[in-house]
């Protein structure tokens, strides 16, 4: 009877048996490929859904623009005699002008005044997305720059250097030439303050990132929010308009009191 022997490897280990480590490696490779394929598919799907949602927002904005803004700015937003071109103004400009009620304008004047907002936040976002799609321009600010947690002292110094000549050191606003004015900054949202700095509405200059960095803009916002949340340490601020209002107060009430006292003393002596 013939005996068939099984070949052995050196060390007495049989050939043809799979190492346990090889099985683990195969399972790991399978999981890796499966997970990678799923991630790629999910990412592409999410990207497609995001793009579709963005395009839908732009389309809604275009409809709103045609119905409410094209009369002055033209159907292609290139401007007319009644209104300037909006090509390249960016989403930040639209969000500021529409979000503060300055646009649509109620009537022509030296400048657009703040009034009740006529569009919802969603409609404003759609208008901003549409105008931003026409050409590059200032985008909406990053939320991290609007938290009011910057350096208030640095913001106060920057505000005095760049803004106080028009808006007053306390942000109370002031008159300009030809019926124009710098509005008060009390109660203005952080978003609109930032957008005003990067877009330069009305007579305001544009403070781009080369003039004032985003972090410095954050500091200015922090200073203005500090003024909002802290009353005048000197008592009644008289509108925070400086020596003019203070002098007028003393002239009327101080001098008036002296005159009244003099008249009373004279009447008593008689």
Automatic annotation (TrEMBL):
Q: Where are the transmembrane segments?
A: 21-41, 248-267
Q: Which reaction does it catalyse?
A: a quinol + 2 Fe(III)-[cytochrome c](out) = a quinone + 2 Fe(II)-[cytochrome c](out) + 2 H(+)(out)
Identify the residues that bind heme c 1: 69, 72-73
Q: What is its EC number?
A: 7.1.1.8
Q: Which domain of life is it from?
A: Bacteria
Q: How does it assemble?
A: The cytochrome bc1 complex is composed of a cytochrome b (QcrB), the Rieske iron-sulfur protein (QcrA) and a diheme cytochrome c (QcrC) subunit.
UniProt protein name: Cytochrome bc1 complex cytochrome c subunit
Could you tell me which species this protein originates from? Answer: Cryobacterium cheniae
């Amino acid at each position: 009877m013939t005996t068939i022997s099984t070949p052995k490897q050196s060390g007495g280990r049989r050939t043809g048996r799979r190492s346990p480590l090889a099985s683990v490696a195969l399972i790991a490779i399978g999981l890796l490929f499966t997970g990678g394929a799923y991630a790629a598919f999910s990412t592409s799907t999410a990207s497609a859904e995001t793009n579709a949602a963005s395009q839908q927002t732009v389309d809604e904005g275009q409809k709103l623009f045609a119905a409410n803004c094209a009369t002055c700015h033209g159907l292609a937003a290139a401007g007319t005699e009644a209104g300037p071109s909006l090509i390249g103004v960016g989403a930040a400009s639209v969000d500021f002008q529409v979000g503060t009620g300055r646009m649509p304008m109620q009537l022509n004047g030296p400048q657009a005044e703040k009034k009740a907002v006529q569009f919802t936040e969603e409609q404003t976002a759609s208008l901003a997305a549409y105008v931003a799609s026409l050409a590059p321009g200032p985008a909406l600010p990053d939320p991290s720059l609007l938290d009011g947690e910057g350096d208030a002292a640095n913001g106060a110094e920057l505000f005095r250097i760049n803004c106080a000549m028009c808006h007053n050191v306390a942000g109370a606003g002031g008159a300009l030439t030809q019926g124009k004015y710098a509005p008060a900054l009390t109660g203005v949202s952080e978003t609109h303050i930032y957008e005003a700095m990067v877009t330069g509405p009305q007579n305001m200059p544009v403070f781009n990132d080369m003039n004032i960095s985003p972090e410095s803009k954050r500091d200015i916002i922090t200073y203005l929010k500090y003024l909002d949340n802290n009353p005048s340490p000197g008592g009644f601020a008289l509108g925070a308009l400086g020596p003019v209002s203070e002098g007028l107060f003393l002239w009327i009430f101080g001098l008036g009191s002296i005159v009244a006292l003099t008249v009373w003393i004279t009447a008593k002596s008689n």
